Amino acid sequence: MTETVVHLVRHGEVDNPGGVLYGRMPGFHLSELGRQMAKLTAAYLADRDITHLVSSPLERAQETVEPLAEALKLPVELDDRVIEAGNDFEGLTVGKNPKQLLNPRFWSKLTNPLKPSWGEPYAEIAERMDAATRDARAQAEGHEAVIVSHQLPVWIARLHFEGKRLWHDPRRRQCTLASVTSVVFDDDRFVRIDYAEPARELLPDAIEAAGSALGSGRK
Which residues are bridge partners to 8 per DSSP? Predict the structure, then answer.
């Protein structure tokens, strides 16, 4: 059997002093600390047998993969399938001001946390992340690939591959900033998940919050 590894990387910290749930909004870039995180993650991965790089099209993901792409001299393929999860509360500051959700116009969005009713269904996230991960595996067969994505898509991909329920408590996600969730395959068969936090030394200084079940502006 041929082993192939696809590393799902969460982007680094974003410059977001207003605490906006920015989701797929353009114009949100890595903070200086986030750029340091990206460099640590690049250093962690640079010596591995990586032959294929993929990124979410959002700025923070592209900026996270940049130092690794420079080190490996590899092009980066942008893939809409690994973009941040859709969220109907995009643009709000519900992490800092949850009372916004008391507005009656939001009540219809809060009916089913198992789906969830306020955004892209977990099952749809799992489907697109599975397809993107398997395509990256095929591109890097016998070697390794990196996909830079976002906290919720990476965590849902992990739950999906491990055969666990997709509904979860966001406070218990094991997916810190600039972390590496590695999906290991034998041929095209999923074998296991490995996990690492190359930027752990910077996390105490990061504005890192798991958020509520609605997510946070720092995903």
Answer: 147, 181
pTM as predicted: 0.88
| pLDDT grade for 213, boundaries at 50, 70 and 90 | very low
Sign for the pseudo-dihedral over CA of 199, 148, 32, 24: negative
On whether the 3-205 domain is CATH 1.20.120.910, my answer is no
- DSSP code, position 160: H
pLDDT confidence of residue 111: 79
Buried b / exposed e along 25-39 (16+ C-beta atoms within 10 A) = eeebebbebbbbbbb
Residue 176's nearest CA partner among 63, 83, 40, 25 is 40
pLDDT tens figures, 82-91: 999 998 778 7
Q: How far is CA 4 from CA 61, 72, 152, in A?
A: 23, 18, 23
Type of residue at 66: E
**Mind spelling out the 3-state secondary structure of 50-81?**
EEEEEECCCHHHHHHHHHHHHHHCCCEEECHH
Which string of DSSP letters, residue by residue, matches 15-37? --TT----TT-S---B-HHHHHH
d(CA 196, CA 49): 17
Q: Please report, for the chain, the start and end positions of each structural domain, with discontinuous segments joined by +.
A: 3-205
**Residue 99: both structure tokens together:** 């009372």
CA distances from 169 to 26, 49, 114, 173, 174 (A): 27, 34, 10, 7, 11
